[in-house]
Amino acid sequence: MARTVGSNGARTAKAIREAGVHLIYKHGYEAMSLRQLAAEVGLQSGSLYKYFENKQSLLFDIVRDHMEDLITRAEAAMDGVEGPIARLKAYVDFHLRYHMTRSAHVFIANMEIRSLEAPHRATVVEMRRRYEGMLEQALREGAAAGLFRVPEPKVATYAIISMLTGICMWYRSDGRLSQDALVALYTDLVLEGVSRPEGVAMPDVVAALPSPAGRRRARA
Amino acid sequence: MARTVGSNGARTAKAIREAGVHLIYKHGYEAMSLRQLAAEVGLQSGSLYKYFENKQSLLFDIVRDHMEDLITRAEAAMDGVEGPIARLKAYVDFHLRYHMTRSAHVFIANMEIRSLEAPHRATVVEMRRRYEGMLEQALREGAAAGLFRVPEPKVATYAIISMLTGICMWYRSDGRLSQDALVALYTDLVLEGVSRPEGVAMPDVVAALPSPAGRRRARA
Amino acid sequence: MARTVGSNGARTAKAIREAGVHLIYKHGYEAMSLRQLAAEVGLQSGSLYKYFENKQSLLFDIVRDHMEDLITRAEAAMDGVEGPIARLKAYVDFHLRYHMTRSAHVFIANMEIRSLEAPHRATVVEMRRRYEGMLEQALREGAAAGLFRVPEPKVATYAIISMLTGICMWYRSDGRLSQDALVALYTDLVLEGVSRPEGVAMPDVVAALPSPAGRRRARA
Amino acid sequence: MARTVGSNGARTAKAIREAGVHLIYKHGYEAMSLRQLAAEVGLQSGSLYKYFENKQSLLFDIVRDHMEDLITRAEAAMDGVEGPIARLKAYVDFHLRYHMTRSAHVFIANMEIRSLEAPHRATVVEMRRRYEGMLEQALREGAAAGLFRVPEPKVATYAIISMLTGICMWYRSDGRLSQDALVALYTDLVLEGVSRPEGVAMPDVVAALPSPAGRRRARA
DNA sequence: AATGAATGAGCATTCATTCAT
DNA sequence: TATGAATGAATGCTCATTCAT
Questions:
Q1: Which one, A153, B86, C108, D30, has least CB within 10 Å?
Q2: Are residues B149 and B79 in the same domain?
Q3: CB contact under 8 A, D215 and C176
Q4: How far is A89 from chain B (nearest CA, A)?
């Protein structure tokens, strides 16, 4: 019998990718078996190797492509936005909407870094740093302009990103609150959190922080 | 040979638990093998079964005990603290210090919930809800007292806890910033984020939120 | 190496089944290991799982298929045979020849019922009941016709079947006695055992038996 | 703490033996674990080795003791009984009652011979031969005296013993039929099966049997 | 007489992967 | 493009057995 009309490699490749995302999201990379994946797309497990080199590279492909997409879209969202406050708002808005829309990919990229082999992990970590850097930059500029109260931009970056990313652990598109409402709520939390209020001094312990200058290690 | 001189059940049990935490933290529950664990404590893998029923219950024991410890200590930390602001500060302080001190346990409890079988997972999720409830309660009281600007206490709870918990992803005890400094930084972010500033109105979209009253589903 | 030249699924499946019968017959189901079985057919033990779901289902497949074969052939052997005496003879003849020819299968079906998990066991027990029912029916009809002296057809059924089945414990095809001779000997024992002799009364204790009517439990 | 009053080795030994019989009967020798056995008598599994050398010798002890008991009692039951018919009746009577009373032991001795290592098995097989020999002897004498129609006493022996032994597969002491009734039924089957009826010739095929004289192999 | 800690071999089963067809 | 047969290593787990205490 000839092949089914329209049954072609590209379609299968896409089906594998989607089933892979779904299964890794649901069971975790280690717990997902290639037999399951093959069954999901109606193949024998050996046939998957036409579409990827091995299980590890399936994961890497998924995570790398996701990170590229994330960065590309973030840059597009921030493109042309002027001023630290507007840029911070744009970042928060983008990050939240992206995480609500593509929660499975995001979840995988956050949870399965551990399952990536060292070189792959390094690549992904570097991409994540670039993405986080966009937020850090906005915070630094806002602080320099006297708009934000962020003595430690790196810490604030981690804090804000953790807070925003957490949304993909519980957000459901059929929930009571709309995406717009949630964006408004989080934006408010973030903006108030970092904005300089009139006449409020930094706590002493922060004022006495050692200077970050000259340190070598990437993380505080 | 039967028994190493000086071998001792309680000591072995403790060693297994610690090695288990370490290996699950490092490789993930699925990726850790009991042979690895046994090797770490100098046993044959079959001998581990004197100390737990199976791999799953090792994980559950670790997570459950951690959650019990977390809740007990949180309650102790909040005990006698009066007023929403003070209570919020106490919660943030406790949460951060605990997460900086026991980051492996915390990491496991957050990451490996997925690896728990349904009934175990239900138990842990319930415990987590109780722990989160302490924060939510403080936020609600603060809002009711007109101190906090939190139209959606549940969302704010998730947001704050995500932000704080994120610290265990990067904190190193030998880092540049002390625990005190980090606590001060995060406390500032949280407090400013939720405090009611003079004459600042809610964003329109939040003001127009549907009332949470009467909804049945647990999550927003 | 992937595939031995000329290897063939159907052939392997048959080889596994036969080796399985042989090993279970020789060592017992519990004592047979799948490594042994795999070695017998020249495979790695994991490869067996292409051919059965698990060890238990290998046993069940063997026993079920045997029972189906037994019943089908018994019905064929009895088909068209008229009259209780002729039917009893046909049953004895069939049963003996079958048990002499396929003693390994028969042995397994009798000995390893205990090793079947409950639902499988129930299925097999039900099939056995059907097979035994054919003999019981012949005995009942002969008794009703005044030809047989069987006050308790169920007991007589068990007795006769036990007697006949015992042959597979010692029969060897290269023994001194031919199948025909053995069939003649057993037929004689059975026929004389149940036939009504002239003027011979039942022993008193049997005459005084409680009526089986109305009892619920299947077995005497 | 001192030992419990009356807790002594002999009592424990007996408990182990009984639990062993029970568990082997229920699960089979291979499937029974010494942990189960130990738990049944309230010991640690290592402690069992004060009472037997190893698992195999527990089985052998059980089977050997049972066979000794069987033979001793059979000899006592036949002692002083005169004449082939009376002796045959006495054997049948004894065998049935013994098998109804001690069905677990009997079952084990029949089913687990396969699990005995070669030398142990040889011992048990020899004992069984002695026990069967008592029946064979009675049949031979009855045939020689012209009372029985048994051209092949060995075959008849196997047939009768199989038939009688089968009772322990289904007999329940709370069944509808009493032991006396069952003994009467089986005795009747056996006696009629082997007794010489007036003017009934042997079937041709049996009349033409090769003489058993001079053969070496133990089984027909 | 019994414990309890441990061994080391073995088990059924699953896995990612290979490759001739 | 896909199959299906197979590998070989690994996994979680159970077992009979040992022996210092």
A1: B86
A2: yes
A3: yes
A4: 13
Q: Do C205 and D180 touch (CB under 8 A)?
A: yes
Q: Per residue in C40-99, pLDDT tens? A: 999 999 999 999 999 999 999 999 999 999 999 999 999 999 999 999 999 999 999 999
R_g of chain C computed on alpha carbons? 21
Q: Which residue has the tokens 């709520």?
A: A185
DSSP A164-185: HHGGGGT--TTSSS-HHHHHHH
Q: Do B159 and A186 touch (CB under 8 A)?
A: yes
In a domain, D211, yes or no: no
> Which residues 4-33 on A are within 7 A of strand F at the CB atom?
7-9, 12
Does B68 have pLDDT greater than 60?
yes
C positions 197-216 inside 8 Å of D (CB) = 197, 202-203, 205-206, 208-210, 212, 215
Nucleic acid strand F within 7 Å of C54 CB: no
Return the half-sphere exposure (C-beta side, CA atoms, 13 A cut-off) of residue D61.
Answer: 15
Task: Say yes or no: C159 contacts chain D, CB-CB below 8 A.
Answer: yes
Say yes or no to pLDDT of B100 above 80: yes
Concatenated DSSP letters of C38-60: HHHHT--GGGGGGT-SSHHHHHH
* Residue D217: predicted pLDDT: 45
Phi, psi torsion values for B71, nearest 5 degrees: -65, -45
Find the CATH number of the domain harbouring B137: 1.10.357.10
**Where does the pLDDT of residue A200 fall: very low under 50, low under 70, confident under 90, or very high at 90 and above?**
low
Whether C68 and C157 share a structural domain: yes
Measuring from the CA of residue D12 to each C1', which nucleotide is nearest?
A: E1
pLDDT at C7: 61
Chain B residue numbers touching A56 (CB-CB < 8 A): none
Same domain flag for B37 and B65:
no
Count: domains in chain C:
2
Residue pair B96/B140 in contact by the 8 Å Cβ criterion: no
Segments forming the whole domain that contains residue A48? 9-52
Q: Are residues A75 and A120 in the same domain?
A: yes
- Cβ atoms of residues B195 and B147 within 8 Å: yes
> Number of CB pairs < 8 Å for A and B?
149
pLDDT digits (tens, 9 = 90+) for B172-211: 999 999 999 999 999 999 999 999 765 555 555 555 566 5
The CATH number of residue D15's host domain is: 1.10.10.60
Q: Mean pLDDT throughout B54-83?
A: 98
Confidence of residue D196 (pLDDT cuts 50, 70, 90): confident
- Whether B216 is in a domain gets the answer no
| pLDDT attached to residue B210 | 61
The string of pLDDT tens digits covering residues B18-29 is 999 999 999 999
